[in-house]
Design the sequence.
C-alpha cells in the first residue's frame, strides 16, 4: 500500500478517535452544577449586611459597595462559567440567570446611584436575554420615566414634606446632583432634577424638610446661551 495512503488512513483514524468536544445542546449535567454554584451566590447575598433604615445616600453607596466586594470573586468566576455554557448551548435557563444578573446591576444604578441611563443599559441587556419578561419591561419604563422630572409630578412636592416623601414622589437625584451645606448647626441641602427641555428644577431642604421648590432653577442650554 502506498505510503501516502497509509498516512491518510492514519490521520483519519486519529481524528475519529479524538474525544468529543463539550456539548452544544442544553444538558442537565452541566446546568445542575451551575445551579449549585448560583445557589451559593444567592446564599452569600442573603448573608449581606442589610441597608440601614432611612439610609443616607452615602450609607446606601458604601453599604452596596461593601456587599458587592464580598461576593465579587465568586460572582465573577460564576459569570465566566455561565457565559461559556450559554455561548455553547443557548440554554434558556442560563439566559434567564444572565438576565437576572443584569437586572440586579440595573437596580443598583436605579435605586442606589439614581443613574438612570446606566440602569436602562443594564435592563435592556437583560431584556435581550429574556425578551418576554414583563418585569424587566416595567423596569425599563420606570427608568425611562425617571430620566427627567415632569411638572405634573414636581408640583406635588410641598413645603413641609420630608426627604422620604420627596424620594417616593420624584425619586432621589444622582449623588453629584445633591448639594449640602451646614450653617449654625442646620443642614441645608438642594436636590437637583433634570427636565426634558435640558433645564433643571430644584427642591430645597432645611434639616431634611422642604422649605422651597423651584421648577425653573436652571434654564435650558439654548435659552441660557441667548442671555
Sequence:
Amino acid at each position: 500500500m502506498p505510503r501516502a495512503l497509509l498516512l491518510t488512513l492514519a490521520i483519519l483514524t486519529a481524528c475519529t478517535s479524538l474525544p468529543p468536544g463539550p456539548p452544544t445542546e442544553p444538558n442537565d449535567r452541566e446546568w445542575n452544577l451551575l445551579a449549585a454554584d448560583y445557589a451559593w451566590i444567592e446564599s452569600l447575598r442573603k448573608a449581606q449586611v442589610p441597608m440601614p433604615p432611612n439610609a443616607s445616600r452615602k450609607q446606601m453607596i458604601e453599604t452596596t459597595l461593601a456587599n458587592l466586594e464580598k461576593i465579587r470573586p465568586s460572582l465573577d468566576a460564576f459569570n465566566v462559567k455561565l457565559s461559556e455554557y450559554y455561548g455553547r448551548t443557548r440554554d434558556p435557563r442560563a439566559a434567564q440567570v444572565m438576565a437576572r444578573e443584569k437586572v440586579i446591576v440595573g437596580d443598583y444604578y436605579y435605586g442606589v446611584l439614581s443613574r438612570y441611563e446606566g440602569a436602562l443599559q443594564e435592563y435592556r441587556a437583560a431584556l435581550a436575554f429574556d425578551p418576554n419578561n414583563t418585569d424587566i419591561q416595567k423596569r425599563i419604563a420606570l427608568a425611562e420615566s425617571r430620566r427627567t422630572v415632569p411638572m405634573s409630578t414636581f408640583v406635588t412636592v410641598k413645603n413641609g414634606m420630608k426627604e422620604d416623601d420627596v424620594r417616593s414622589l420624584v425619586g432621589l437625584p444622582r449623588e453629584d446632583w445633591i448639594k449640602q451645606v451646614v450653617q449654625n448647626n442646620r443642614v441645608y441641602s438642594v436636590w437637583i432634577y433634570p427636565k426634558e427641555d435640558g433645564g433643571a428644577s430644584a427642591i430645597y431642604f432645611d434639616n431634611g424638610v422642604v422649605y422651597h421648590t423651584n421648577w425653573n432653577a436652571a434654564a435650558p442650554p439654548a435659552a441660557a446661551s441667548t442671555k
